[in-house]
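Quick check before the chapter quiz. The format below is the same one you will see on the exam, so make sure you can read both the input and the output lines.
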Amino acid sequence: MNNEDLFKKVVSHCKEYGFVFPSSEIYDGLAAVYDYGQNGVELRNNIRQYWWKAMTQLQTNILGIDAAIFMHPKTWKASGHIDGFSDPMIDNKDSKKRYRADVLLEEHQEKLRAKADKEVEKARARFGESFDETMYRSTNPRVVEYLNTISHIDNTLKEGLETGNLVMIKALIEELGIVCPVSGSKNWTDVRQFNLMYSTQMSAVESGEDSLYLRPETAQGIFVNFLNVQKSGRAKIPFGIAQTGKAFRNEIVARQFIMRMKEFEQMEMQFFCKPGTELEWYAYWKEQRLKWHLALGTDKNSYRYHDHVKLAHYANAAVDIEFDFPFGFKEVEGIHSRTDFDLSKHEEFSGKKLRYFDPETNESYIPYVVETSIGLDRMFLLALCAAYQEEAVEGGEVRTVLKLHPALAPVKAAILPLVKKDGLPEMAEKIYNDLRFDFKLYIEDKDSIGKRYRRMDAIGTPFCITVDHESPANEDVTIRHRDTMEQRRVKVSELRDILAKETGMSALLQKLA
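Here is the expected output.
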């Protein structure tokens, strides 16, 4: 199936099998807001747990917190969000649709990269083993033109955003002939900046003094708690602070399902280090975070690093880990070297010293920070897109299966009595009750065993445990593996060890140690 069909099937699958629902659907829903269903919440929790354990359990120098969503308004003044947290937006006058101008340009770049790669592959097939890709990319007129245009977009976009010259960005869109995806027209408005923060009031009476903001990121809760954690945790530089939690952005352009939402969850770690060592730690975390992704067994060719052309004013290095979704490569996680900007600004606005005293060198300094920030919802979508498969099986049937890593699977095993009689349901229930303290299980006796297998395949359950007529006498069951559909007999007494080894988080975490 093509990528567009794959994505439509993943979205449909999410609703049909209890992963993701449109929010308030009975009232026709709410744009860019979604609810997680019974299987979705389990998958989401497992992804979060994998990240949390990798950060705070495997790393001896990372501590966790859970900061409040509401923070003092000065927090967002110090961080720059009140004055500068905005996106460049452009409207198409014919379709009445609004787009992020930088995203339109980035998507155009992706099309050019795809064209260049296609030319390269055609040449590779033509020249065979003698093909020199580097030479071809630097000399073939068509490929050179594509790559030069990509570079031109990078340079112009960077200059326009850094200088605030939005006219330059609109002119670039017009120069490239970019059309509205809906209307196909080039009838664009001027580019304007829109602030993305939601504001509310602390009291019932609306007052400027009582204005609060729903946090647009979780990082600031870490920065304002730097000294609290450092002192109470007796932490020595270098050390990190990790946090997961909800964030809110007034995304005017929200599309691609849960890829970009108004309410989402972040998993962030801020790593505090001595000035001058930050780029070493940046390189370390860049490598470690990709390793975390690849440990799940996802194809490494589906990932790539994307270095930032335009650095934030506070950063001296930044890279995105991008995944090849059905709609193209998109950011899943960012690693940023933020220098001492955040702590310096909070020290300035609060009047409180946010410094670290190093007893070994007898000096006091504001630490530099390396950030890792991953979207939980995007990681959820990544896991589903990578896992969704349709396979032909015997009899001409096609089974839909989610080949999720067993540690992430919403349900670890299904306990299935073959029939509703002869004591099989009672034995199945006994096995279920014995194992449910350690594993998320499912038990069902409705429909044929084949249909029940298919339902479990569709939600990604790694194992189906069938209680048949031989089971009561022999104290054994048939265990079926989701990916291979192979079946074997095992003793009931062995089930706990099998599930712990195959579906537990420990084996996954050991890949990172």
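If your answer matched, good. The longest strand covers residues 328-339.
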